[in-house]
Write a structure and sequence with these properties.
The protein is α/β, with parallel strands linked by helices. An eight-stranded mixed β-sheet has the order 3-2-4-1-5-6-7-8, with helices on both faces. The longest helix is centred in the N-terminal third of the chain and has 28 residues. It starts with a helix and ends with a helix. Bound molecules: guanosine-5'-diphosphate. Guanosine-5'-diphosphate binds next to α4. It is found in: Membrane. This is Signal recognition particle, SRP54 subunit, GTPase domain. Keywords: GTP-binding, Membrane, Nucleotide-binding, Receptor.
């Protein structure tokens, strides 16, 4: 009798470990990285050995719960925290080509979303929605300003651009926030130049931008959103560390999840730095920016 039981346990364990091996591969393929993969898998292995997980579907559910815990352990602030003062200021930062300008345009096009997220400020807003001003703070790449101007024209939004070729990004942003304050805008969305996180002079410019907007409106910027390209895999983590150290990131936008990228490394970023994901980019169209929902993100990875 004892012998038979032992065989059963061994059978369950070996099935469990095979399932676990497959999930481990799935985690690595989805760019979770070795460190977090080992942490998750070892936890599951212990539960299998303790007889707490008895089937493939129980292991899968436990795996999803582990990832959800890592994504939400430091709180679940996926909404924009825009405070009470007008204008709320959102700065968008990140490396070149990640999708900053596109994300900014998408956010500006989501007046309903911003309106809903403004919380207590919302009751003061006019019925027609949120008044959004864009600031073309990417003074490094001329095409970024042209791109924003075209979008602003299309959507009827207003925009502040650099005057003269040598205008500093910090002065464009401070000018925009001043105008936002004087003209009663609800939100000022600030684009910034793309930069490698290892380029210190450009990182210093970001500090100047942050200080400049804070001088105009106390507490600004309310949000500093770091755009992370979902296809960059494990490079996300050093990028996020550096940007966070320099300017203090309040939220992440994970872009390009419409391709083969799963963006699993963002779990390490959230776990290590305690910064929540606020939006995901799932395409190039205006509607392709969605609020981040941890459960949906996890389901997409393990579907
Ligand atoms: P920036 O340099 O960070 O401002 O990057 P851009 O906003 O100019 O975007 C770089 C490229 O990525 C553009 O071709 C965008 O259309 C594209 N892009 C941005 N977000 C997404 C996304 O979620 N999915 C896909 N497929 N492409 C995106």
């Amino acid at each position: 009798m004892l012998f038979i039981l032992r065989v059963d346990v061994l059978a369950i364990e070996s099935i469990g470990f095979e399932v676990l091996y497959n999930f481990k591969r799935a985690l690595l393929v989805s760019d979770f990285g070795p460190k977090i993969t080992i942490k998750i898998v070892e936890g599951l292995r212990e539960d299998i050995l303790a007889g707490k997980l008895k089937s493939g579907s129980e292991i899968k559910d436990a795996l999803k719960r582990s990832v959800l815990e890592l994504l939400t352990e430091k709180g679940d602030k996926t909404e924009l925290q825009l405070g009470f003062r007008k204008p709320a200021v959102i700065m968008i930062v990140g490396v070149n080509g990640g999708g900053k300008t596109t994300s900014l345009v998408k956010i500006s096009g989501k007046a309903d979303l911003l309106f809903a997220l403004l919380g207590k400020l919302a009751h003061k807003l006019k019925k027609e929605g949120v008044k959004v001003l864009m600031a073309a703070g990417d003074t490094f790449r001329a095409a970024a300003t042209d791109q924003l101007v075209i979008w602003a024209e299309r959507s009827g939004s207003e925009i502040v651009v650099a005057e003269g070729e040598k205008a500093k990004a910090s002065s464009v942003l401070s000018q925009a926030v001043k105008r936002g304050k004087e003209q009663g805008f609800d939100v000022v969305l600030c684009d910034t130049s793309g930069r490698l996180h290892t380029n210190y002079s450009l990182m210093e410019e970001l500090i100047a931008c942050k200080k400049a907007v804070g001088k105009v409106v106390a507490g600004a910027p309310n949000e500093v959103l770091l755009v992370l390209d979902g296809t960059t895999g494990l490079n996300m983590l050093p990028q996020a560390r550096e940007f966070n150290e320099v300017v203090g990131i309040t939220g992440l936008i994970l872009t390009k999840l419409d391709g083969s990228a799963r963006g699993g490394c963002v779990v390490s970023v959230v776990h290590e730095l305690g910064i929540p994901v606020k939006f995901v980019g799932v395409g190039e169209g205006l509607e392709d920016l969605q609020p981040f929902v941890a459960e949906a993100f996890i389901d997409a990875i393990f579907s």
